[in-house]
Amino acid sequence: MDITGLVCALLHDTVEDTDITLDDIQNMFGKRERVIIDGLTKISGFDNYENSTDQAENFRKMLLTLSDDVRVILIKLADRLHNMRTLDHMARQKQLKIASETQFMYAPLAHRLGLYNIKTELEDLSLKFKDPDTYNDIVSRLQKTQAVRNRFISAFTLPIRRALDASELKYEIRSRTKSISSIYNKIIFKGVPFEEIYDVFAIRIILDTELPNEKSDCWRVYSMVTDHYQPNPDRLRDWISIPKSSGYESLHITVMSPTGKWVEVQIRSKRMDDIAEKGYAAHWKYKGSDGSESPESRLDSWLGQIRDVLENPDINTMDFIDSFKLSLASEEIFVFTPKGDLKTLPVGSTALDFAFHIHTQVGNHCIGAKVNHKLVPLSYKIRSGDQVEVLTSTKQRPKEEWLKIVVTASARHKIRDKLREDKRIICVEGKEMLQRKLAGLKVEFRSRNVEELVRHFDLPHAQELYFRIAKGVIDLTRLKGFEIKNGQLKFPTTKPAHDEISSPETEKKTGQIVTETVLIGDEQQQLDYTLAACCNPIPGDEVFGFTTVSEGIKIHRANCPNAEELLSKYAYRVIKARWKHAGGVEFEVGLKFSGIDDVGIVQAITNIISTDMNVNMRAISFEAVDGIFRGRMVVLVRDTKHLSSLIQHLRDVEGVLTVERIESEFA
Q: Is 315 in contact with 416 (CB distance < 8 Å)?
């Protein structure tokens, strides 16, 4: 941080929390300081957002300044990290909201800027507050296995150290334990038990070498490591030849240890390690007083794309949040143009994404592509190493369904822009058609008449009326049957206005926003609610209520797959919920299990459930392939303690390897 950065860090809350104004800041410190502090000052001036629009607008304002000066986000991320470190003192509902918001937006942003240490701590702290039991369990397991890991690392690195000493290379060897959140993701999303996660730790070899020799020295070390240990060719990651767009450079290999465990080895120079630890931000060239700058080109290119999205006045605030989230995709692929130019895109990008990445007009007129000289459709997902040629036609125009094909924020933004432009042209045609029709009926074309038509046809605004007229959805011959007085249209009965899209304002009018706590299982409960099917909460689960637009209050588990998005984007709809004594009521829970297929295994499992535990089953299915069986079932349990006891009994059955609760309903 330079002096400007430190000044802004110290003053970041002053405009928000004191009587000092932005003009005062500019007079005392300078124009650049004013710009940065303005980017850090919330529009609403307080942290309890009334609705998702306030939240998105504040984030948008901050990011507009980010695209001009990266110090804004450095200070904001440091502020968020401090908030997360002190979250213990906040109310539980506030903890869930802030942790979800951090996981949803701030951690991916830190990762995209290469701030890996901050990103890791933000993710770990988010998990700590969202799912404390799992977090503490992983921490405990890591502590118990620490001594064993240290002995293993010492033995594993010994032959590598000897080879490096003989080569006279200056080096340092460190070990890095995988972050708690990364371990959690493997356990939850990949179904890998803790004991089977092979990359709980990684060996890092850091070379003290000159810039021109970095690449060759790293490959020399690669050769030394693979002389002693057999590498896995599918796990080689060469980010030295092609660095990530966040600036990350390193050579990753996975080798087999003498004990039969896979071990990840990372090889990099001191300069690469500095960027890996602190990100491009550590080497950012801030704009000087003369306006000159020399930013890292690939990161600056990404910021340029974000600026294009942010500065679009027509973009809906929630569309903006979704677009920005898409742009934070961390995994990348590298593809080539027909002339051999290298292009970087997020994993999952389609041929249409590639076309828009080349140029807006190429994307607008794209009809297909050739990948490795073979014809493919627009929706074809390209892979690293592909050579892509875009096919175009001047007759082609973007279509609404293209939004379902593309995955990059910039392509989605360009398609929406073109669709809006086309719609504006159609609206002009529709407006002219309405003017001619009203003139024929001797009705004046004025705002009162247009508003009357908008209300009658249940439309949100006049532009939609013109669009539907041009498309033939609204038949103008229907206007003949209505009364005309003094050039004014009069309808026999005016339909009520179109149902408003749910917003804080409409919800306040209808009383839909609720500040009470939902007591689940309380017969005297005044609030109607249903249990969400996406996570099937049961007594004992930590839960929250979410006010939906049409289905009332839904009760979700705090670690529901959808919780992160609901709590971060629609926090104003979230209400407190807690369990009251359920009074013997049983709840459906899904379980999945696997193990070694053997005679009697199914009977042993069903006996545990029905006879030993006296649990009712709603559904059950088994399948066996090559000696391994997998099964699913839905059982009725009273609460989380009852469920934990059942899972433990099932795990004790000989041949059963895994038993896990599944989020969604049995399918």
A: yes
